[in-house]
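User: I'm new to structure prediction. If I give you an amino acid sequence, what do you actually give back? Let's try with this one:
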Amino acid sequence: MKKKRALENTAGATQAPSFVHQLLALQQQKKDAGEVARLRGNEFYAQGEFESALQCYTSAIETYPADPASYSNRAMVNLVLGRYEQVIADAN
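Assistant: Good question. You get back a string of structure tokens that encode the predicted 3D arrangement of the chain. For your 92 residues, that looks like this:
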């Protein structure tokens, strides 16, 4: 009887870490996709294509909102474009 309970407890324990690992993997995928979008925005910014850069930074924020670099980069583009209310919104 004790062995059966031990096996049941072990089975439940292995499922929980698997779920946690899946969540962490999904979060990493979102972080990576956000970084790719931000880096693409950096390339557009360097070429002076500010509207395209803005779209990339917005995509990066939507994909991974925890990255402060995407907000500051989008704020910079809006500053260059004279969109000061958006600069303040991203700075907050």
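You can read the tokens as a compact description of the fold. Here is one thing that stands out. The two ends are 59 Å apart (CA to CA).
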